Task: inverse folding
């Protein structure tokens, strides 16, 4: 028994290392795949966590000849569906086959999106100081909107609005830069 | 409601979806638009992608040009750190976990709720992990739920049951498994492995052909209607064939087959026949390590919050150390805590540490300077029992103006006492009875927000607000010298019946913020720290 179980533990540890390196490499892409359906960051991260565990439990069935990310995204889609089933609000957003349509359309648009998002970093750096700090506070530091509001002496509603405007400004900048690069 | 495209309503709805604040009506209207309008759908996909890129591509923020890093920046930025999971630690942790598994470790040491005064729960075990489990009952047992004596019919998949005495049984469907008591079960058919730690010696499993009594071991059973196979992997067991034979001892590596009309046959134990059950256990422990690492990464991020005055992650390695490290990066806010008494024990995950409070002397002393308009307290605790009228989670010494006492009452009510500046003035903000006996022994996230601005006290259990109470005591609030898990009455009348307030249970994380956290933030604290992913998802068929 101990011989066998030792060997199994050894195999298992190697499998864990393989899994981890694959998963960590794909984690961001899995997150974006989920966020295309559930854009709220906290919820999307929750689903990614659940996906990670499901993936590990089914790692035996993974064929290393196949790319990992698409395999993982199938699990992520499943976990997302299960998550939605219990949340009426999100059901309202994604019902009538919209979830599948969004996932599919995103895949089709991805090359084009990538070309545009290449300019995101440059555009971020062009933001005025205050806006750049706000975006960084919200997305990088993961500060709550309430806290950002307090720190910038805005109301919570105004802070949401500011974040929305900053994203619009970033999007306009990206589009313009992409156009400039193309012409 | 209808949303045109392009329009301000569209912009607002997409933004609200990103922030998680969209109403159901907004979402419904957006659904209607996106299903019928292709350009709107493309625009939506692009906007969401921009948002998710900002949230996930941390390299975008890795380099900050000099011009931006000027002193007038109004946000305090933490040091540039990569908060990605550290892979080396990960692998080491996994290895450690596997080693522990091989040595036979026991996470749960629940006391029997039935022994407690006034207890009404009949639960004797808990369903603590499943993989692809399909149950015959219409009502599947919930993961993490207490199990009362009764029959479990597992059609397929695997399930792990932890008995309150400590025995851990993995069953593989199809199986019929009867829970009898905290240390007894029977199996009519199916395959199972049982691991029995020393404190649960004497754990019994009956099958139609034999009764097995464990003597501190690991063994497997393969039960069919007319035939039972017993395999001893570690230690030894005592068993008797129900046909009336005398008791026998079986040692490690041995096994026995009892068949309806045949004579008892001794065999060699074959662990390979139980490979799927062993693999399940290995995977379970790996999943726990994964959760632990995910929490660790989030906890590191939390430490950058400038309003975090005190954060104990209970992760230090030296059990002889009597200082409890405050990991908040705002070092001037508070010093380390001092451990008085207490025992180190396991936390939410097998390799997570926790402090156990048992005796009336056990406590952690802390000191935090400063006045605050609002405070938020949050802790992960495993409540062992509500032995006192008032069981302290956190209490400032004595009864001083502006301080608060956070406790659980014997009836499961969460209570926050705020002490006013007028002599003798105070207010107790309570929740309805929230903690139930079934939650004893489980890891729970408790939080309370004392919002001096909004004049509001909110209690939370597992990320969900359980009560809102108006707050009459005026800020500022302060900590001063305080204790976790106990109370230093400091001159409070000795004859008071509520004088002794020591907590009975374990704590493996404590946060103290000098501001009021939003409900969303509390939910996020719970979400990154919960021991296992959402149970409903795993048991769903």
Result:
């Amino acid at each position: 028994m101990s011989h066998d179980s030792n060997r199994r533990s050894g195999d298992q540890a190697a499998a864990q290392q393989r899994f981890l390196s694959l998963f960590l490499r794909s984690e961001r892409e899995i997150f974006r795949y989920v966020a295309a359906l559930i854009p709220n960051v906290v919820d999307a991260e929750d689903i990614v966590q659940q996906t990670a565990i499901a993936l590990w439990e089914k790692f035996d069935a993974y064929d290393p000849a196949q790319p990992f990310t698409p395999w993982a995204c199938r699990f992520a889609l499943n976990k997302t569906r299960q998550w939605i089933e219990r949340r009426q609000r999100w059901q309202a957003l994604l019902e009538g086959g919209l979830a599948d349509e969004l996932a599919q359309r995103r895949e089709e648009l991805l090359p084009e999106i990538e070309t545009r998002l290449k300019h995101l970093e440059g555009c971020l750096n062009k933001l005025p100081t205050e806006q750049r700090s706000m975006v960084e506070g919200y997305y990088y530091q993961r500060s709550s909107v309430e806290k950002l509001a307090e720190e910038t002496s805005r109301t919570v509603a105004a802070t949401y609005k500011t974040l929305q405007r900053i994203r619009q400004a970033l999007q306009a900048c990206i589009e313009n830069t992409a156009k400039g690069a193309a012409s | 409601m209808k949303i045109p495209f392009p329009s301000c309503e569209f912009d607002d709805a997409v933004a609200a979806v990103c922030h998680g604040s969209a109403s159901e009506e907004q979402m419904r209207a957006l659904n209607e638009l996106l299903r019928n309008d292709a350009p709107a759908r493309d625009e939506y996909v692009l906007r969401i992608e921009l948002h998710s890129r900002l949230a996930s591509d941390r390299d975008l923020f890795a380099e900050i040009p000099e011009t931006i890093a000027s002193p007038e920046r109004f946000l305090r930025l933490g040091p540039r750190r990569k908060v990605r999971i550290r892979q080396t630690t990960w692998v080491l942790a996994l290895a450690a976990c596997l080693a522990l598994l091989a040595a036979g470790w026991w996470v749960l040491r629940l006391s029997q709720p039935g022994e407690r005064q006034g207890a009404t729960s009949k639960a004797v075990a808990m369903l603590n992990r499943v993989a692809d489990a399909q149950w015959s009952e219409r009502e599947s047992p919930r993961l993490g739920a207490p199990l009362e004596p009764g029959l479990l019919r597992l059609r397929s998949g695997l399930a792990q049951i932890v008995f309150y005495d400590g025995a851990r049984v993995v069953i593989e469907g199809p199986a019929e498994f009867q829970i009898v008591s905290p240390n007894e079960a029977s199996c009519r058919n199916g395959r199972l492995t049982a691991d029995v730690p020393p404190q649960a010696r004497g754990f019994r499993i009956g099958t139609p052909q034999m009764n097995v009594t464990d003597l501190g071991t690991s063994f497997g059973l393969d039960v069919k209607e007319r035939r039972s196979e017993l395999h001893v992997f570690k230690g030894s067991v005592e068993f008797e064939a129900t046909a009336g034979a005398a008791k026998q001892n079986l040692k490690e590596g041995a096994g026995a087959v009892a068949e309806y009309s045949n004579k008892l046959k001794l065999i060699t134990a074959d662990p390979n026949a139980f490979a799927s059950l062993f693999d399940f256990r290995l995977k379970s422990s790996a999943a726990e390590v994964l959760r632990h690492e995910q929490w660790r990464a989030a906890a590191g991020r939390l430490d950058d919050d400038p309003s975090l005055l005190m954060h104990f992650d209970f992760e230090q390695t030296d059990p002889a150390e009597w200082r409890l490290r405050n990991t908040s990066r705002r070092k001037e806010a508070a010093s380390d805590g001092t451990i008085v008494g207490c025992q180190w024990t396991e936390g939410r995950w097998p390799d997570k540490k926790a402090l156990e409070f048992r005796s009336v002397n056990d406590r952690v002393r802390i000191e935090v300077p400063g006045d605050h308009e609002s405070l938020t307290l949050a802790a992960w605790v495993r409540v062992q029992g509500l032995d006192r009228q008032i069981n302290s989670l956190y209490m400032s010494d004595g009864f001083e103006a502006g301080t608060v006492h956070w406790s659980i009452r014997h009836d499961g009510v969460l209570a926050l006492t705020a002490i006013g500046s007028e002599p003798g003035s105070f207010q107790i903000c309570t929740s309805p009875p929230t903690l139930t006996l079934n939650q004893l022994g489980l890891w729970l996230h408790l939080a309370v927000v004392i919002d001096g601005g909004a004049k509001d006290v909110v209690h939370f259990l597992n990320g969900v607000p359980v009560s809102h109470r108006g707050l009459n005591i005026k800020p500022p609030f302060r900590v001063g010298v305080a204790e976790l898990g106990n109370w230093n009455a400091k001159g409070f009348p000795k004859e008071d019946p509520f004088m002794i307030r020591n907590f009975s249970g374990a704590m493996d994380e404590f946060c103290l913020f000098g501001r009021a956290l939003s409900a969303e933030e509390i939910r996020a604290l719970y979400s990154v720290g919960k021991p296992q992913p959402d149970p409903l998802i795993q048991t769903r068929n």
Q: What stands out?
A: Chain B touches chain A through 93 residues (CB under 8 Å). The helical segments of chain B are 8-19, 24-36, 38-56, 87-103, 275-302, 519-529, 535-539.
